[in-house]
Every structure is written in structure tokens, then in C-alpha cells.
Amino acid sequence: MSQPAHLTNDPASRLKECRAEVVAIRTHAQALFVGGATGIQVAAAISEATEEFVKRVFQETVDRLPDDRRTFVAKNVAVIAVGGTGRGELCPYSDVDLLFLVRPVAMQVAGDCVSQAVRDYWDAGLRLGHAVRDVADTLNLARQEIDVATALVEARLLWGDRGLFDQLLTEFKRKIIRSRVAAFIDDCVAAREKERTEFGSAVKQLEPDVKRSPGGLRDLHLLRWVGFARFATADIESLRLKGALSRDEARILLSAYDYIKHVRVDLHFAAGRCQDVLVRDEQLRITDERHIEGTIGQRPVERFMQTYFRHSTAIAELSERFITLHRPRSLFASLFRSLTTHRSDGVYLVGNDGIDVVPRHRDEVLSGLEGILKFYRTAALYQVAPSAEFAERIREAAPKLDGDVSAEAAQLFRDILNCHGNLGLILRSMFRTGVLEIVIPPMAHVRCLLQFNQYHSYTVDEHTLRAIEAIEGFDRDPGLLGEAYRAVRKKCVLHLALLLHDLGKGYDEDHSFVGRAIANRTADRLRMRDEDRETLSFLVHRHLAMAHQAFRRDTSEYEEILDFSREVGSAERLRMLFVLTAADVMAVGPGVWTQWKSQLVFELYDRTMILLSGQDAAVDQARRLDKIRRKVMQIVSEGSPPSRETAEAAQLRNLLDKLPAHYLSTTAPERIAFDLRAMLQYRPGQIQVEGYFDASTQTVEYRIITHENDVSGCFHKATGVLTAHRLEIASAQICTTPDGFVIDSFHVHDGDFAGEIPAQRIEEVASAMKDTLSGRVHVEELFHRHRRFGASRKLQPLSNLPASVVIDNNSSERFTVIDVFSHDRPGLLYTLSRKIFELELSVVLAKIATHLDQVVDVFYVTERAGRKLDGPDRLKVVQSTLLTTLDEFESSEWQRFAS
Amino acid sequence: MKKIEAIVRHFKLEDVKNALNQAGLQGMTASEVRGFGRQRGHKETYRGAEYTVDFLPKVKIEVVVSDEQLQTAVDTIVNAARTGKIGDGKIFVSQLAEVIRIRTGETGASAI
């Protein structure tokens, strides 16, 4: 860089010279940069040259004054570098922040001088941020505006009267900092919080602002300010010497600072202006220029950003820890803390703002993975954050732990995953301290892993933790997501699936396949039960299935829903997949979970739920049921005096209240009223059977109302009667009230007749039904009686999907749910329901749906004694028996029913 | 020049995109939209549960073409998006005053 002689007085040529000099400063810096200088070196060079320029221009402005004024100004003015300029770390196009400190007597004279100089700076091409104030004004402002105060932390005298400068500094330290350390730090942190939010609240957002985003340079500044307030120095090295930072921390901070500074300088030079956002195009350019190479499964740019995020995460975490440790607590807060803190197990100190370990137990807790996990489990149970101090101790201890997960540790980790409320926070802490990587080693691979596409806003690790936070937030959701989340019984499996769902990223192979392998290994490591392992594997492998189905397929097509529900298998798994899908999409970035997307996913969830559980998932069910009950009461009480409820009406209401929800929501109110009266008039031994022809669907509905004392195996006998009469059962619903009333309804096609079915035929079926149910006739006899002779040809099924039986013991409090997917043939339902009867199960609710030749039958069953199926062995027996029954039926048994 | 705005079923987006690409038309904008047409208030009964349909999720595709390409583009979209059932959507065509490519400043048909 050339050192020009004194500037001329001619305004035009003076301007030209100034401009040339500022350009020269930048050109020189760029040469250094290209030559391989570090970010700190380049910034220092720019600062030094800029300061020289600032000083000289001001000196020359003063020199042009008459002699007496010249001395007057020199004695009463101080030109002070503040903010980034004071730190001596200017980037090529950073603002130059100056404070012209003037004694009140010199305001007039100095004012002229300053405006002349400021004009020159601007004309030269510097971006200036300046103020002209006296000491009192400056301090007043610093008290009100945190920006002014923090800028003064970095103040350095460039030109003028040292006495004046020292006066400001002394008073600043005394009045603004020392007398109100806590307020100063609080204000700094609050201002930074606000800025963080404005520039994206995550460290690992994919287009970060290198200065203002979380983990940006500003976090380091914040650390310096807090350091200044607590230790009277803002310098990292001095803070280390004073013991406020460890040697490691200082080293990590400086290296991260240098790295990010370098990127910022690069951005400025490339843009030719102040440009602090690391946009995708710039990421690509820098990767290219630095000749960064990719690996299998990871693009070069993703590797570059991974390094960047490692550094910014380090800054964010160190600064956060530093502030938490060194933020003074007020006397009141300490008192409050000691009053609200209690000891748990004699080992932990649980307070409102965090959990710590009693000092004498610390080494013991840190000596093994189990101790650390117990600490985290306590934090999860009490829903408090682990204290920063102890988390730091864990981080130091983690590398010394051996990599095995004992049975106890596995149990503890599963316990943690079963919690919700602050699970995201706990997992975040476990991730930072390195404990999560010990339990789930593949977590290490996704640390700071970038996904270079237009959809994701965060790195894989950040996305995953955000997804966990989103899903536990559903607990407070009043809508469908909340209902589903609260109904999920095995939160541990769900949360683990979400934690693992993207761990397969960054490899060559499809991430859902890699993820499945990781899920299986993790399930083994955590010693999960087979059934949980299978669910986990499914959820991780198919975590995109519901989004794909909802966004890319026609959710109103029955076949589509059928295939989907078949894959999902059970209501519990559907609930899990549903909330997992929503949390996953939400954690992609702000505003990604749109109403558009939620509507499609909700619809798919609702429709699939009806298939899998026989009930719809809509949230306002309670209100809807109330409405139905009111309507029914209105119908039954028609004609009776409205003023008082008769005894009969009270009895009816009592019966009505006991009717199950699925029956109420799928039966017309008029019909419910009719059934109620039938129940009211019931006498022991009575079996009522009615048949109605419905012209709109061309089906006959047969309804049976009786009591379980009178008939055993009502459901399978009824299906038998219908099948024997060659009726095809399109849908069936059975309902048993707590009092033992049975209301079954069957919609059937009668292939023997075209058009309206004659009353005579309906009567024939109904009376056969009564005979069979009352035990006068055996079902098998009917088959013989109605058997038709002729060729019974085996029809090839339309689809070649194998039959499957899924038993879900989690979805319902009181019942075990069996979903059967199969090909429909006459006699199938009878065979199945008889087998269920023989297995000594009671069918409480059944939903039968046939579409083309595919059926999904849902049975809600209990043991005869009325409780759910217990034990995995019993479940296995039921499942395998039903599968064998289906196989036998498919291979030969069907011929018995073929007509 | 013409601007084509097609409101289609959400799951038809891929089909329409591929068909337009095959027909040699490149470049389009797609957005998630919600709306209703004649099927407003249409109630769907689905296994006993009633759905009151108000705003339905659809996808809006915008394509700008020269006058000569218009017919091909419209035909392509119609063929790809049709299911024959209610709710297949609509296509709006409007006259376009000007197109400017921001990077080069080109205007008119060469900027499409």
C-alpha cells in the first residue's frame, strides 16, 4: 500500500486522493487474503490502515484551523474507536464506528471540525457510524441504550486528549458497569436474544448470517462483554489468564473466531459490499475455491458447511455456558433458589431453574454411564434443565466412559425417552455432552451434517432435536395431533423413532434403508422387546410413507387407503406415524407445515383410522355424541309431556348413556330410538331379528337385538346363518353394552334376487336366525340344507397380497384389537368369527368392510372374563391360529361355502 | 404470449410436470392452494363418517407459453390431470403483456 503525502487542500483532488486510499486499503487486504492470510490477520490489517487514515484525515482537518483553535480542539476533543472498530477487527466493508467525545465548552468549534472530517470519510467510501457527544450525554445514553454501552466496552483512543478519554472510561466502568453488573449483563443478553430471533433462532440454519445468527460472531462479542463486566477485561487471552476460560475453551474460541472471520472477509470481498449472509450460492463458491472434496454420500459443500457449523456451534455453546456460569445471581434469586431447591435421593439438587448434583456425590455420578443417565432421567422426570456446570463436568467425563450400554443403562435411556415435557432439552444436553453418541453411536455422524437442498433449513442434528421438541409440544395441542399423541402408549418407541429417523442421511444408499439398519442395531443395543423393535424399524424405515401417501396420492381413493392401512397395520402404529410425520415436517423449517399439508395428512389419518379401528379419529367426538344423544331423547320423548321426564324416559336415558360411541356415531338417531325401546321391553329369552331393504344401496340390513345371557357366540352364528343363505356380508357391526345387551347389524347383498328383496325372503332369513341363535337349529345343519350343487370353481384372487393378522394390544384401554387383511370369499367371516369364538374370545365390536375382493375386518375382543388378552404368548397363539385358519380357508376350506 | 394457470388435484402435479416436460415445455411455477369450485359444500360420506368439504387442497401450476404452444400446453395439462371425477380442476388462460428475464434483461418470447 502506498503512503500518500499530505492531502491537498483542493476539494476535488482531495476527494480523489481519499477515495484512492480507501480502495488501496481494501486492495492490499485482498492481496493478503488471496495470499493465504487468516481472517484475523486480514481484519487486523484493515483496521490498522483504516485507523491511520481516520487519524490523518482528522489531523489535517484540525491543521487547517487557526493556531489558537488548533490547540483548543486538541485539548478538548477525543476521537474514539468504538464497537468493532475499537476491537480492531474490521472486515472489508464493515461500518467504522467512531465517537467524537467533546468537552461541552468546545462543542461549537469541534462541531465544524467534525462535520468536515465526517464528510471526507463518507466521500472516501467509508461507511461511518459516528456520534458527537460530551461525557455526561454518553453515559446517560449508555445507561438507556445497551448498544451504546457495549460499544464503549471496546473503546480505544485514536486521536486527541487522553485525559478526556480516561475520564469517560473511568466513569463508564464505575457508573454503567460496576454498580450494575447484573443489569448490564441482562440487557446484553436480552438484546442478543432479540437479534438471534430476528436472524433465525437456530445455530444450524442452512443460510446463516455469519455475524448475527446464533453461533455468529456476535455470540463471541457477547461473551467479551460479559467478561468485561465480570473480570474487567474483554480479551479472550486475559480471560483465560484470570481463570474465566479454560485453555481448551480459549483455543476453541479463537480458532472458531478465526474461521468465521475468514468466511466473513471472503463474503465481503466477493460481494463488494457488506454482505454477512452465507447464502447457498456463496457456500458453493467458497467450497469450490477452497477445493474441498466430497465423500461418498456427502457433497463437497455439505462438508464445508459441516466445518462451518462445528465452529459456530462451538461459539454458541461456549458463549452460552460462559454467560450462565458468570451471570451474577441477585440475593433474592439465590434465596429463592435455596428455598425452592430440594434434594432428591440425597444425590440430586432439584430447583426451579435446574438440577445439579450434591458435590460429594459428583465423582460417583460421573464414574459410569448409568450414573449420568440417572441424572438425566431425574432431570426428565422433574422437567428441569441440567445445570450448566454439571453438564460441563459430564462433557469432560464422557470420553472416558467405556462404549458399552449395560442392561441398566438401556433401561434408563428408555425411561428418559418415555418422558415428555422437556425431552428435547434433555436430549440436546446429552448430545452436547457426547452422552447421546455413546448410547446411539450413529448420532456422531449427523453432527452438523448439512442437507444441501432447498427444503431443509437446519442440519440433520438440529432438525432431529427440533422434531423432538415439536412432537412433545403436541401434548398441549387441542386438535387431532394432540389426541393422537396423548393416545400413543409407547412414547419411548415413538420418540426413539423420531430421534433415529434421519440418521441414515449422508450415505450413498437411500437414507430410509440405512436408517432401518441403524434402528435395528439400536433396538438390540437398547435391549428392546421384539414387538417394539419391529415398530421402531417400521417407523424409521417408512417415516416418509404417510407424507408421500398424503401429498402424492389420492387420499379419497379407497384402494389407496386400503394399501396404506395394510402397511401400517394397527391404529397405534398409525397414531405414531401420524405425529411423527407432522413433527418431521414441522422441523424442516418455519412455515413448512402449512394448512394445506396438514389438511391432507389429517384427512389421510382420519380415513385410515376408520379402517384400522372402526372409529373415526375426529376430535370433537364427545360433543357430537352429546348432540346425537339429545336428538335420540327428543325422538323417544315425542308425544309425552315436555315439562317433566317420565320414569320411562329416565330408564331410556340410562340405557342410552351406556351405548358405545361407535354405535351412536354410525346409527341413525331414529334407529337408536327404536333399539332403545326394544331393549326397554326386553324379557329374558327374547331374540328380536328384523330385516329392512335399503333401495339406495340395494342391500338388506338385518338387525339382531338380544342379551348375551340368551345367546353365546351370537356373532359367528349370525354370520353363519347369513352365509348359509348365500348372502354376501358387505359390512357388519356388533355392539355389546356394559349391561350385556347385544345389537348386531349386517348389511348383505342377496344374489338370489334382483331388485327389491321380497318380504318373504327376509322373513325366512330372520326366522332361521332366531332358530339358530336360540339353539333350536345348528349352524352346520343350515349349510347342508342350503348347499347348492354345481361346479365350485376356485376364483383367483384379484390381488396377490398375502393375508395378514395384526394384533394391537395398545390402542384401547379395555380391548384387544385384531385387524385381519384378507381376500374375501363367501364363508370367510363365518370361519374367522367361529375361530375367534373357539379361541374363547368375546367379540365386543366388529367392523367388516369389503372392497372388491379385499377385506379389512376389525375385531375388538376380550377374554371371556372381560379383560384384554394378556401376555405375548397368548397374543402369538391367537395370531398364529387365525393365520392358519386363513391359510386353510384359502387353500381348501372355502369350497365348503362355494355356491 | 399466454399465461396458463391450472388448478389441479394435488397428486397430479408430478404427472402434469412430466407431461409438460415431455411436450417440450420447460419451466413452471407450482404452489399449494386451497379453494373450491362447483363442488362447494359437497358432502362426502365415507364409511359412516361425514365430511363437510369446504376448501379443498389443490395445486396451482402456472406456465407461460408462446401463442403457438398454447394448444399443446393446454391439451397436455388436461390429459395429465384428468380423472373424470368431480374436482379435477380448471385451467385459466390469459393474455400476457410482457416477460422479462431478470438476469439478462431479455424481453418477449425469448425470455420465456
Q: Biggest β-sheet of chain B: count, sense, barrel?
A: 4 strands, antiparallel
Show the largest interface. A-B, 22 and 17 residues
Helix content of chain A: 55-70%
The count of β-strands of chain B is 6
Q: Would you list the SSEs of chain B in sequence order as H and E?
A: EHEEEEHE
CATH class of chain B: Alpha Beta
CATH topological fold name of the largest domain in chain A: cca-adding enzyme, domain 2
Indicate the structural class of chain B: alpha+beta
Number of helices of chain B: 2
CATH architecture of chain B: 2-Layer Sandwich
- Residue stretches of chain B low in confidence (pLDDT < 50, at least 5 long) are 41-52
**Might you state the CATH topology name of chain B?**
Alpha-Beta Plaits
The CATH architecture category of the largest domain in chain A equals Orthogonal Bundle
Helix content of chain B: 10-25%
Q: Give the beta-strand count of chain A.
A: 15
Sheet-strand content of chain B, in percent, reads 35-45%
Strand order of the largest sheet of chain B: 2-5-1-6
Overall mean pLDDT of chain A:
85
- Report the span from N to C terminus of chain A: 102 Å
Count of discrete alpha- or pi-helical segments spanning 4 or more residues of chain A:
39
Structure characteristics:
heterodimer; A: 899 residues; alpha+beta; Beta Polymerase, domain 2; Four Helix Bundle (Hemerythrin (Met), subunit A); cca-adding enzyme, domain 2; eight-stranded antiparallel β-sheet; four-stranded mixed β-sheet; elongated; disordered N terminus; B: 112 residues; Alpha-Beta Plaits; four-stranded antiparallel β-sheet; two-stranded antiparallel sheet; 2 helices; 6 strands; 20% helix; globular
